[in-house]
Amino acid sequence: MSIATEISRIKGNIESAYVKAEEKGAMLPAVRNSEGLASMIESIAQSGSGWRPQVDWWDIDGILAEDTEDYEGKMIVLLSDSYVTQTINLFGASKVVLSDGAEYVADGVHRWDVTKDKACGLGYKTRFMIRYYESRSDFEYKDLRLSDALYVIFKGLKMVVLGNRAEVDCPIRGALNVEYIRFEDCDFDGSSGNFCFGFPRLRGIEGYVVQDDVSMEKMYQGTGLGEVSFLPKSPTNMSNAFTNASVEYLPYVDTGRVSNFWQCFNGSRVRVIESLDLNGCTVASGMFVSPCLVSINEIANIRMNEFKFDGCVLLNHDTLVRILNALCDYSSDMEGMHTIVFGATNLAKLSDEELAIGQDKGWTIS
Question: What is the pTM of this model?
Answer without folding.
Answer: 0.81
